[in-house]
Automatic annotation (TrEMBL):
InterPro entries: DoxX (IPR032808). Pfam families: DoxX_2. Its main location: membrane. The chain crosses the membrane at residues 12-34, 54-72, 79-97. This is DoxX family protein. GO terms for cellular component: membrane. It comes from Bradyrhizobium icense. It is a multi-pass membrane protein.
């Protein structure tokens, strides 16, 4: 649906999803970049999680990859699915390990679910091909 003509009645929905995808991409490029850069706050947070700094690099890399996929029309659904998995982990981590509010992660999870739902046709067609 992303790279073909959109019927007039769905045009605003299509534009809205593109705006959400762009904002999510910016958010995850920033969050992943901070993790990869090694901001002291992120280093401390991942130290508190207890899995080591390799996990910070993995999480940051996956966030950046997911953000890039969100911007690619035929891959946006898979970027959203990847970021949904990361945000589920973030919510669980906030609830049971590091504390703090899980609300930002839950909002990002919901927005990525919206993108994945809007790209469900692409996800299903590629899943059938596999």
């Amino acid at each position: 649906m992303s790279d073909v003509a959109v019927p007039a009645e769905r045009r605003w929905t299509h534009v809205g999803v593109w705006i959400v995808r762009g904002l999510l991409a910016l958010a995850f490029l920033g969050a992943g970049g901070i993790k990869l850069y090694g901001a002291p706050m992120m280093v401390d947070e991942f130290h508190h999680i207890g899995l080591g700094q390799w996990f910070r690099y993995l999480t940051g890399s996956l966030e950046v990859i997911g953000a890039i996929l969100l911007l690619l029309p035929r891959k946006a659904g898979f970027g959203a699915l990847l970021l949904i998995c990361i945000m589920i982990g973030a919510v669980i981590t906030h609830l049971f390990v590091i504390g703090g509010s899980p609300i930002p992660a839950m909002v990002l999870l919901a927005l990525n679910a919206l993108v994945a739902y809007s790209e469900r046709g692409e996800i299903a067609s590629l899943a059938r091909a596999l």
